[in-house]
Each structure stands twice: as C-alpha cells, then as structure tokens.
Design brief:
Length: about 80
Amino acid sequence: MENENWYVYILLCRDGTLYTGITNDIKKRMLAHEKGKGAKYTKGRGPFKLVYENIFNNQSMAMKEENRIKKLSKVQKLKLVQV
C-alpha cells in the first residue's frame, strides 16, 4: 500500500493535555482512543477533541513530523493547533 495516506494528529484530552500520534485511518484511530484502546497515555483521558491533523503521502514523512511535534513545548503545540 504505497499510496496510502498517513495522518499526524493532535488530541486535546479532557484533562487539558495534548497527545500526538500517527495513523493511516483517522476515524478508526479516534474510535480506538475513545474506547480506551488507542494508546496507553490516552486511556481514561477522554473524551477527546481532534485539534490538529496533517496528511502525508507515506509513513516515514508522517513519523518525522510526529517526532518534530513531540519535541515542541506545550506552548508551541498550542500555537500550532491554535487552541
């Protein structure tokens, strides 16, 4: 599946924290987060608001962007998502 789109996304959690992740199916991933199965960090922190999403042509580019975003401070992430 070379032509599959990958998404970098940021969730605003109920407790005000931000979670950054990647997926190739944003709807399925959101459902998993809501059910407490998306990631260890998000378990028990829902409901979530999708505050940022960016589409990439491949997983490698998405992972690079995810890593870049994860290195940002919370203030920088809030500027990125304009929450």
